[in-house]
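QA checklist item 7 of 12: single-chain prediction sanity check.
[x] sequence parsed
[x] length recorded as 272
[x] structure emitted
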Amino acid sequence: MPFDFHEQNGLTWLTAPQLEGRPGLTHGFSTRRGCVSAPPFDTLNLGVGRGDDPGAVAENYRRFCGALGVDARRAVLSKQIHETTVRRCTAGDAGKGLLRERDYTADALITDEPDLPLVVFSADCGIILLYDPVRRAVGAAHAGWRGCAGGILRNTVESMVRAFGSRPRDLLAAIGPCIGQCCFETDGDVPEAMTGALGDDAAPYLERRGAKWHVDLAGLNRQWLLRCGLQPEHIGTAGLCTGCRPDLFWSHRKMGNARGAQVALIALTEGC
């Protein structure tokens, strides 16, 4: 099923059918539309430390989080270095990345505490949200090709199992917009890394076109989730390429460093 588009006062975001309407849960995948940043960050830039006006970024968070019904001041932002570290977040982490310095590096965040929005960033990489409706826990992971090959999603699922007693078959997952196979052109190092990680299961997502390879990053991340024990019907994929849609998303491959970033956010809410 395709993701759903939402618009409020010009701000546009997406939600996944697998997660939408769940009691006590909110989530969203941002686009670049609908807030206050000036070019080249126009307009809904949620990437911190990229050269955008910090006041504009803070206002963008206020509006985006407000649309999702959460408090931007309590958001916990990942500090991504394309590795496989998972951080269990507590109330003591609230505001880190936006209002306070991040005293950690982590490409994935998990929590079972309410009112603690978890945020991961992308400008082509995979961004994946996880929800355990039984144990009431959530996770957010940044899975570019290095993280995917390194097993960041395996680490995230296993961390939820250890920390919260989650069962993989109960988990619901949403794979957000990322660079598609149409635009993700690489040399042989990426297919080699994916084959080393997933063996023959990687082959359907790797296509040789002349001297280059084209890689289906979303498909590879979905394969990791299946390998971890998630049910196929519990995994949703946006099916949107960040490289093909500059009207909606930023793409590092197409735009370079003069750009903003989109995010995926997930949070448990009080009262459920």
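[x] summary fact logged: The chain has a mean pLDDT of 97.
[ ] second reviewer sign-off
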